[in-house]
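Look at a sample.

——
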Amino acid sequence: INAEYMGKVNSVSGRGVYLRAGELPPATDAAVTVTPAFHEATPAQQKINFELNLFLRASQPWVAAPSTLALMNEARSFNIQVRTGGLSEGVHYAEVAAHDAARPDAGPVFRVPVTVVVPLRPVAG
Protein backbone atom coordinates (compact mmCIF):
# COMPACT_ATOMS: atom_id res chain seq x y z
CA ILE A 1 0.00 0.00 0.00
CA ASN A 2 1.33 3.40 -0.90
CA ALA A 3 0.94 5.83 1.96
CA GLU A 4 2.47 9.09 3.02
CA TYR A 5 3.01 9.98 6.66
CA MET A 6 2.02 13.24 8.28
CA GLY A 7 3.54 14.14 11.62
CA LYS A 8 2.66 16.47 14.45
CA VAL A 9 4.89 17.35 17.38
CA ASN A 10 3.31 18.39 20.69
CA SER A 11 -0.12 18.60 19.00
CA VAL A 12 1.09 21.37 16.70
CA SER A 13 1.64 20.64 13.05
CA GLY A 14 5.31 21.18 12.48
CA ARG A 15 8.53 19.89 11.08
CA GLY A 16 10.05 18.47 14.22
CA VAL A 17 11.25 19.35 17.70
CA TYR A 18 12.86 22.77 18.11
CA LEU A 19 14.06 23.90 21.53
CA ARG A 20 15.50 27.34 22.17
CA ALA A 21 15.36 29.43 25.28
CA GLY A 22 17.45 31.28 27.83
CA GLU A 23 17.30 28.44 30.36
CA LEU A 24 16.59 24.99 28.97
CA PRO A 25 15.41 22.29 31.38
CA PRO A 26 17.75 19.28 31.64
CA ALA A 27 15.23 17.16 29.71
CA THR A 28 12.15 17.86 27.59
CA ASP A 29 9.54 15.40 26.35
CA ALA A 30 7.92 15.92 22.96
CA ALA A 31 4.84 14.00 21.86
CA VAL A 32 4.98 12.96 18.20
CA THR A 33 1.86 11.81 16.34
CA VAL A 34 2.18 10.03 13.00
CA THR A 35 -0.83 9.60 10.71
CA PRO A 36 -0.76 7.55 7.52
CA ALA A 37 -2.35 9.40 4.58
CA PHE A 38 -3.61 7.01 1.94
CA HIS A 39 -4.19 7.75 -1.72
CA GLU A 40 -7.88 8.48 -2.25
CA ALA A 41 -8.21 5.43 -4.55
CA THR A 42 -7.01 3.02 -1.83
CA PRO A 43 -9.83 0.54 -1.08
CA ALA A 44 -11.30 0.74 2.42
CA GLN A 45 -10.37 -2.87 3.24
CA GLN A 46 -6.71 -2.20 2.43
CA LYS A 47 -6.77 0.80 4.74
CA ILE A 48 -8.35 -1.27 7.52
CA ASN A 49 -5.75 -4.03 7.11
CA PHE A 50 -2.80 -1.64 7.04
CA GLU A 51 -0.10 -2.46 9.59
CA LEU A 52 3.51 -1.33 9.49
CA ASN A 53 5.98 -2.40 12.18
CA LEU A 54 8.69 0.20 12.57
CA PHE A 55 11.86 0.43 14.57
CA LEU A 56 12.94 3.89 15.70
CA ARG A 57 16.53 5.04 15.94
CA ALA A 58 17.85 8.32 17.37
CA SER A 59 20.99 9.67 15.71
CA GLN A 60 22.43 11.24 18.88
CA PRO A 61 22.73 9.90 22.45
CA TRP A 62 21.01 12.99 23.90
CA VAL A 63 17.75 11.99 22.15
CA ALA A 64 15.71 9.00 23.34
CA ALA A 65 12.76 7.36 21.59
CA PRO A 66 10.97 4.03 21.91
CA SER A 67 12.65 1.21 19.99
CA THR A 68 9.50 0.18 18.08
CA LEU A 69 6.20 1.56 16.84
CA ALA A 70 3.28 -0.34 15.30
CA LEU A 71 1.60 1.98 12.83
CA MET A 72 -1.99 1.14 11.91
CA ASN A 73 -4.53 2.90 9.71
CA GLU A 74 -5.02 5.74 12.20
CA ALA A 75 -2.80 8.15 14.10
CA ARG A 76 -0.27 6.70 16.55
CA SER A 77 1.77 8.65 19.07
CA PHE A 78 5.10 8.23 20.80
CA ASN A 79 7.32 10.40 22.98
CA ILE A 80 10.80 11.68 22.28
CA GLN A 81 12.93 12.79 25.21
CA VAL A 82 15.55 15.44 24.52
CA ARG A 83 18.23 15.61 27.20
CA THR A 84 19.74 19.08 26.96
CA GLY A 85 21.58 19.07 30.29
CA GLY A 86 25.01 18.11 28.94
CA LEU A 87 24.91 20.04 25.67
CA SER A 88 27.43 22.80 25.08
CA GLU A 89 26.56 26.28 23.82
CA GLY A 90 25.54 26.37 20.17
CA VAL A 91 23.22 24.58 17.77
CA HIS A 92 22.74 20.81 18.02
CA TYR A 93 20.90 18.60 15.51
CA ALA A 94 19.63 15.02 15.69
CA GLU A 95 16.80 13.04 14.20
CA VAL A 96 14.67 10.05 15.02
CA ALA A 97 14.35 7.84 11.95
CA ALA A 98 11.63 5.22 11.58
CA HIS A 99 12.50 2.15 9.48
CA ASP A 100 10.20 -0.60 8.22
CA ALA A 101 11.18 -3.67 10.28
CA ALA A 102 10.51 -5.92 7.26
CA ARG A 103 12.73 -3.81 4.97
CA PRO A 104 15.32 -2.02 7.12
CA ASP A 105 17.65 -1.35 4.19
CA ALA A 106 14.96 0.58 2.29
CA GLY A 107 15.75 3.77 4.20
CA PRO A 108 13.60 5.68 6.67
CA VAL A 109 9.82 5.72 6.30
CA PHE A 110 9.84 9.08 8.07
CA ARG A 111 12.17 11.24 10.15
CA VAL A 112 11.57 13.57 13.07
CA PRO A 113 14.22 16.32 13.16
CA VAL A 114 15.35 17.59 16.58
CA THR A 115 17.13 20.94 16.88
CA VAL A 116 18.35 22.43 20.15
CA VAL A 117 19.86 25.89 20.47
CA VAL A 118 21.81 26.38 23.70
CA PRO A 119 22.39 30.12 24.04
CA LEU A 120 25.72 31.68 24.89
CA ARG A 121 26.04 32.44 28.57
CA PRO A 122 27.01 36.03 29.38
CA VAL A 123 30.50 36.44 30.75
CA ALA A 124 30.64 38.37 34.01
CA GLY A 125 32.80 41.35 33.44
Remarks:
- The first strand starts at residue 3 and ends at 9.
